[in-house]
């Protein structure tokens, strides 16, 4: 598959590296030579030092034969222009990075489609959604709702008091049980488990369940004593913080600590209709944190542009008694370190955005996709096509490759946990979990085909 990417920033370079490991034909365009930084010599990528809104540049880059064009420069208007030109030149699909929330309104999507833009991605909105989902359940590291909670994915760190340790999963996750374990992170290893695998102390386990059984999951993992989140302190007043504050549930109270006075004034304007309190100061200042009630705060969210600062601030908050911490970690090299230090939820905007873009490359019908950084695994929502291989036999007879498992499906709006005897039918939305770089193997089971 051929992909042309405009913009060698954090999202563009991360996506380029990801595609190069998947052996796709990738072209990366940027008019700043320093931003390209030897990408073509270190990865199997064609780097083009030119303007991504130049028609000649786009033609020379082969946009006319591109399966996907991605506009992820720093400038929204440039991304929209580049995508419009790429579509006119023959690119099959286009996606543009934006920073105007208004554009995501459903009534505006046909307008952008008419311009030749198939999808819009706003990384800060995607990150804010992950943050809010994590705050809603203080005892969960990661939460992902499918079809408004018809199915729910919960990433949970297993501590003392967990009732389901050291037992074969076949005895825990039978056909009539209300959850499945779909992935496990143990030390540095990722496990897509089978029936004989067991959960161990300090595992990070991913549960697939339905919303009504969340209280039951909370009980069996021994998390009932965790206090629900009502008071939140956010360090850093960037776009992600704004989106998080604006989408926070009414029962949560937020304080945003921002070190830049001018930005504080802007935050007060942006949050004028919101109850969030903006405080000018340094979120690492223990005196300020105590003054603002850190000891009566259930969650601390660090969203500055510096990963080290965010990690250290979360560690400080934990020492002051905050149980739920969230850190923005843009440097992927720090992700494992943050987990090793027991930082609760880790947010990385570029991986969230890259997952959204990557799903557009799938030939099967993929409604949603997420890269689970902590477990080096991917989860995707595939829609089973008429005549696809996955609809022809019960799950146990499909011969799924090692490292791929099906956790659940949604049929007619109802979430159903999948077992070996489940028969998937056309139109089912199916949640598939797999090790990194195996999604294309899973995709083959969901594409429409007459020859198998």
Automatic annotation (TrEMBL):
This is Trk system potassium uptake protein TrkA. Residues 1-121 form the RCK N-terminal domain. One of its GO terms (molecular function) is potassium ion transmembrane transporter activity. PROSITE patterns: RCK_C, RCK_N. InterPro entries: K_uptake_TrkA (IPR006036), NAD(P)-bd_dom_sf (IPR036291), RCK_C (IPR006037), RCK_C_sf (IPR036721), RCK_N (IPR003148), Trk_Ktr_HKT_K-transport (IPR050721). GO terms for cellular component: plasma membrane. Gene3D superfamilies: NAD(P)-binding Rossmann-like Domain, Regulator of K+ conductance, C-terminal domain. Transmembrane segments: none annotated. SUPFAM superfamilies: NAD(P)-binding Rossmann-fold domains, TrkA C-terminal domain-like. Residues 141-223, 367-448 form the RCK C-terminal domain. Keywords: Ion transport, NAD, Potassium, Potassium transport, Transport.
